Backbone:
C-alpha cells in the first residue's frame, strides 16, 4: 500500500493532514462498521473486508510510513489545517462512504431481483407439475423455490431500507458540512 492508495480508501486528497486523516477515519469507521449490518451476513462480510482495508490505510498513514516530506507540501496543504480543510476532509470521507453504501445497495437490489425471479420460476414450475404422479416432486421443488425466493426478496428489501437510511444520513451530514463551508467563505 502507498500513501495515495491509503488516502483514496479514506476518501482524501493528497494534501490531507493528520487531523484530516483522523477525522475521515472516525467518520468512515462509524459508517462502515460491520455491526451496522448484523441483519445481513453477506453485507456484514463485505463491511468487515472494507473495514479491514480502512484500518490498514489508517495505520499506514498514521505510522509515519505514509508521511509526506516538507518539500511535497502545497499551498492547499497549508489551507487544510484550518476549519475549512477539516470540513473538506470530512466531506471527502462522507463521499467515499456514500459510494460504498450505494455499491452495497446495488448488490442487494440484485439479490432482491434474483429472489423475485426464483419465486416466479418456482410458481410456474409448481403450477405446471401439480398433477399427481412422478412429476409431483417438481411441483414441490417449485413451491420451495417460491418460499425461498420470497424470503430472499423480503430480506433484501429490509437491507435496502437500512442502506437507504444510512445514505440519507450521509446526505444530511454532507448538506450540513457544505453549509458550514459556505459560512466560512
Residues:
Amino acid at each position: 500500500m502507498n500513501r495515495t492508495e491509503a488516502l483514496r480508501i479514506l476518501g482524501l486528497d493528497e494534501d490531507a493532514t493528520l487531523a484530516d486523516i483522523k477525522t475521515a477515519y472516525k467518520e468512515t469507521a462509524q459508517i462502515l462498521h460491520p455491526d451496522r449490518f448484523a441483519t445481513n451476513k453477506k453485507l456484514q462480510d463485505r463491511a468487515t473486508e472494507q473495514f479491514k482495508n480502512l484500518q490498514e490505510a489508517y495505520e499506514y498513514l498514521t505510522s509515519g510510513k505514509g508521511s509526506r516530506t516538507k518539500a511535497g507540501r502545497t499551498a492547499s496543504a497549508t489551507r487544510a489545517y484550518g476549519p475549512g480543510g477539516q470540513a473538506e476532509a470530512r466531506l471527502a470521507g462522507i463521499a467515499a462512504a456514500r459510494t460504498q453504501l450505494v455499491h452495497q445497495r446495488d448488490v442487494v437490489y440484485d439479490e432482491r431481483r434474483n429472489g423475485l425471479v426464483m419465486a416466479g420460476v418456482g410458481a410456474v414450475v409448481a403450477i405446471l407439475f401439480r398433477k399427481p404422479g412422478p412429476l409431483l416432486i417438481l411441483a414441490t421443488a417449485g413451491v420451495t423455490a417460491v418460499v425461498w425466493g420470497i424470503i430472499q426478496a423480503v430480506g433484501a428489501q429490509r437491507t435496502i431500507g437500512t442502506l437507504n437510511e444510512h445514505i440519507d444520513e450521509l446526505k444530511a451530514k454532507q448538506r450540513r458540512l457544505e453549509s458550514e463551508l459556505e459560512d466560512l467563505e
Q: What stands out?
A: The longest helix spans residues 136-184. The chain has a mean pLDDT of 82. The CA atoms of residues 60 and 66 lie 6 Å apart. The chain has six helices and no strands.
